[in-house]
Amino acid sequence: MRCMTIPPPPLPSPESSPRRRSADAAVSRGRAFVRGLVTTIWVAVGIFFAVLPFGQHIGNEDRGIPPTSPGIALAAGIGALLMIGAAILLVWRTRYPYLVTAIAAGIALFLPSTPVPALIALVSVLHRRRGPWVWIMTGAVALACGVSTRWDAQSTSNSLMSTFAGRGASPDEVLATLPWAVPLSVFLLMLPFVATGLLLRARSERDVALVEVQDTRQSAATLSDEVSRQRERQEVAREIHDTLASRLSTLSLHAGALEVNARESDTALAGAASVVRESAQRSLDDLRYVVDVLRDPAQAQGSRIAAGRTSLADLPDLIEASEALPGGIVSNVFLSDAAGCDPRVAHACYRIVQEALANARRHAPGQTVSLSLRGGPGAGLTLTLTNPAPEGLTPTSVGGGHGVTGMTERATLLGGTLTARTDDHGVFGIYAWLPWIPPVLTVTDAPASA
Questions:
Q1: Digit-coded pLDDT (tens) for 128-151
Q2: Which of 321, 361, 367, 434 is the most exposed place for a label (fewest CB within 10 A)?
Q3: What's the pTM value of the predicted model, to 2 decimals?
């Protein structure tokens, strides 16, 4: 039979199903489209308002609106070109909000231009940044709004400030309204953008708070479950220790006494008694390990608990013991750097082989068992154990029906696989693969893997 030397692909989870991935991709595309549309609208608005002051300063001879001074008109043209570039920079306002806001506000401070791109970028500053620089930028944008209002008052009668002084007011009359019109204009310009930024900030903080509350609740529920499981493990440990430890100790003592008494009279009986005593002693060691893990799972990786675990070096003794049983065993073990195998994998491999051999002796007594174990770093451990299972065989004992389930759980917990099946020729087989280095297990996994 061909051995598997690479891990099988993981089973698809509900979260990674094609339908779920398609839905997530559609949502992502929809959000990206909305963000792109909003950015395009903001850039268009910024370019429109960037050109507007230049048109005010050059006037309109056909409508009888004289231009301002040539120097101011030239400065307005330069400011319009620079502010168009600042409006295009709004594409990166969420990534570099400070930089974009500073550039747009600086242009509005030193040239006759509009503060609208700076106001749009200020929304991202208030939304995505924290600290004193947020309010420094807010003050700079407010100052830019005041300066832009002052430049607007020096333009012709079609300026924004002329609406405060009345239709057809002269530039002098417009300038006379500055003491009260400038603060009002700055307030009206800043209010919607600052309110939008603070609203988006409050919504983001609310979402973060909701996520933290959910995480806290989940952590509290997990901690409560862990405390409950720990209490159950301690109760199970007490029951196992009180019921099985004393019986195994008694069995070991009687087997030792039987071995001593039969050593001279019956060599075969003495050998059987020795096997019983050694098995009882090993069972006691395994029982102590399980009890320790149940009582203190946090130290499951520690040397005190792990010292009693079996490894790949114990497989020869297990195979040798099976060779003495009726039917025997045909083994083919080829391992590269067996000492470098992860202790958890080595222990699980030993237990799977032990349980598979026990099942074969129980359900197919007298049949020859074939064992193949190959592996090494990078390839993992590939285990195949087969035995004929002809009809009419009588099991030597009645098992609990959990052997294959337990072996499968051991392999799964370590990231491996295990299957059990009977082929068309009536041969029952255990086929398992275990990784050489398993994924990291959490503390709560330790009792299950024991």
A1: 888 899 999 999 999 998 888 877
A2: 321
A3: 0.49
Model pLDDT for residues 5-52, shown as the tens digit of each residue: 444 444 444 444 677 777 777 777 888 888 888 889 989 988 988 887
Residue 354 belongs to a domain with what CATH number?
3.30.565.10
Largest CA-CA distance found in the chain, in angstroms, rounded = 135
Could you tell me the pLDDT band of residue 401, with boundaries at 50, 70 and 90?
low
Residue matched to tokens 């330069």: 78
**Number of domains observed in the structure of the chain:** 2
Cα(181)–Cα(176) distance, integer angstroms: 9
What value, to the nearest 5°, has the Cα angle with vertex 15 and ends 10 and 16? 50
The answer to whether residue 170 sits within a structural domain is yes
d(CA 159, CA 178): 13
* Domain that includes residue 374, residue range: 309-450
Among 119, 150, 176, which residue terminates a domain? 176
Residues 168 and 25 in one domain: yes
Q: From the CA atom positions of the chain, what is the Rg in Å?
A: 41
Instruction: Specify whether the CB–CB gap between 325 and 275 falls below 8 A.
Output: no
Residue ending a domain, among 130, 159, 176, is 176
